[in-house]
Amino acid sequence: MEFQQLLIKVFERASQMLEKALDGLTQDDLNYLPNPDCNSIGWLAWHLTRVQDSAISNLMDKEQCWIADKWYGKFGRNPDPTDRGVGHTSVDVSNFKSPDSKTLLDYYCAVFKQTKEYINKLSTAELGREVDNLRSPLVGLRIAGIINDNIQHVGQIAYLRGMLKGKGWYVV
Questions:
Q1: Stretch 132-138: mean pLDDT, rounded?
Q2: Residue 92 CA neighbour count, 13 Å, CB half
Q3: What is the average pLDDT across 102-121?
Q4: Which of 14, 47, 71, 101 could form a disulfide with 85, with the two C-beta atoms 3.0–4.6 Å apart?
């Protein structure tokens, strides 16, 4: 297995888990805040997708899907490429109104398609390329950060779903 295939498999697994965790959730479920200082399922799904869209688009040196495909309109938000949820306050999160699960997943699928396109062309040399990011100064480290972000947030979504719906929703 080539490293590109491995990276794509990791992103595919996160995508599958996200799809299962969002399946059948209502608008109330997606916007539920278990505590005023917590994130909602809808916000978490939007945020993890926005971070991936922003980072991969930056690595590809192209416009984000958020802007190019006008996803911001489907989320009722402004076309601000820096609006990724990073730095959102509890008030910002509570003011976020999620679209339905299908829209969340469709946006993630569009971003994942772009991610696969990038990774399929990725070379070992490109993994070591320096990028303008203090926390992840190399392409490979940036990709590792995106994977980490996806796994953490999909886990948070799954946990919140379990709080709302109880056990039994996840079947292998």
A1: 80
A2: 11
A3: 98
A4: 47
Q: Does residue 170 fall inside a structural domain?
A: no
Q: What is the pLDDT of residue 103?
A: 98
Q: Where residue 109 sits, what CATH number does that domain have? A: 1.20.120.450
Q: Give domain status of residue 171, yes or no.
A: no
Query: What domain range is 8 assigned to?
Result: 3-165
**Quick one: tokens of 156?**
């948070």
Please indicate, yes or no, if residue 172 is contained in any of the structural domains: no
Average model confidence (pLDDT) across the chain: 95
- Could you give the CA distance from residue 8 to residue 46 in angstroms, rounded to a whole number? 20
Q: What is the DSSP secondary-structure string of 54-122?
A: HHHHHHHTS--HHHHTTHHHHTT----TT-SSTT--HHHHHH-----HHHHHHHHHHHHHHHHHHHHT-
Dihedral angle over CA of 94, 100, 106, 111, nearest 10: 0
Indicate the number of domains in the chain: 1
